[in-house]
Amino acid sequence: DGGITQSPKYLFRKEGQNVTLSCEQNLNHDAMYWYRQDPGQGLRLIYYSQIVNDFQKGDIAEGYSVSREKKESFPLTVTSAQKNPTAFYLCASSRGTANTEAFFGQGTRLTVV
Amino acid sequence: AQSVTQPDIHITVSEGASLELRCNYSYGATPYLFWYVQSPGQGLQLLLKYFSGDTLVQGIKGFEAEFKRSQSSFNLRKPSVHWSDAAEYFCAVGARSSASKIIFGSGTRLSIRP
Fold first, then answer.
1. Over pLDDT 90: what percentage of chain B?
2. Contact A46, A61 (CB under 8 A)
3. Which residues of B touch A48 (CB under 8 A)?
4. Residue ranges of chain A whose CB lies within 8 Å of a chain B CB
5. Would you call B95 and A98 a contact, using CB atoms and an 8 Å cutoff?
6. DSSP, res B50
7. B63 CB-side CA count, 13 A
8. Other C-beta atoms lying within 10 Å of the C-beta of residue B61
9. Judging by beta carbons within 10 Å of its beta carbon (0-12, 13-18, 19+), is residue A56 exposed, middle or buried?
10. Contact A34, A66 (CB under 8 A)
11. Is the peptide bond before A85 cis (omega within 30 degrees of 0)?
12. pLDDT tens string B62-102
């Protein structure tokens, strides 16, 4: 089945540690995105990538980093510089043209203690 | 830059009643518009989308939305809600000048009264 796989579903980390969230898609989509979701704030764009080896900052990129070495994969690293990392993280992909919708993974809930 | 506003944080309707969720957008040209639904702890599922043409768009699960350029709105409607419609609903806007940036509203949580 084609889709987007995020892993793990739940992740716990100690404060000060970097953590990497996985996102893989087999939809042959060019564009991939990372969103952060907090209660009452909707989805905020962290980073997005339109093609391999290229990515752009979204609205809340500080404290996060990404890579896009393969078309299928767009991992997100939450660094120790991110002051409030506990959140629900959603990965999405699209064909990358303006008139296409985004398809979402099931999300990763990160809790930093 | 585009933006989208969902003025209602939480709405409760009775099962079988009609539903309208509001969405207003800001963009200098005709945008691409979407409605997504999210169940607790899950990802988002596309309900419907508007790109061009007929301003009344039909989606899955019996939902529809109407694009009104004069009001910069894209409200979501359903004639009769079911208990399974309880979820969070997000309106989103994409800019024709940007291939990849989709901006989401803050969401409306829908509760269904038995």
1. 73
2. yes
3. 100-101
4. 4, 6, 31, 33, 35, 40-45, 48-50, 58, 88, 90, 92, 94, 96-99, 101-107, 109
5. yes
6. E
7. 22
8. 12
9. middle
10. yes
11. no
12. 999 999 999 999 999 999 999 999 999 999 998 766 556 78
Nearest by CB to A50, which of B43, B99, B106? B99
Q: Do B46 and A103 touch (CB under 8 A)?
A: yes
Rounded to 5 degrees, φ, ψ at B47 are -90, -45
Helix residue spans in chain A (DSSP H): none
Closest Cβ opposite residue B106 in set A42, A49, A58: A42
Q: Check A101 against B98: CB less than 8 A apart.
A: no
What sign does the dihedral A21-A22-A28-A30 (CA atoms) show?
Answer: positive
Residue type, A37: Q
Query: Can you tell me the distance from the alpha carbon of B44 to that of B40, in angstroms, rounded to the nearest whole number?
Result: 10
Per-residue pLDDT of chain A (113 residues; tens, 9 = 90+): 679 999 999 999 999 899 999 999 999 999 999 999 998 778 999 999 999 999 999 989 999 999 999 999 999 999 998 989 999 999 999 987 767 889 999 999 999 98
Interchain CB distance below 8 Å, B106 and A104: no
With an 8 Å Cβ cutoff, are B104 and A43 in contact? yes
Nearest chain A residue to B7, by CA: A40
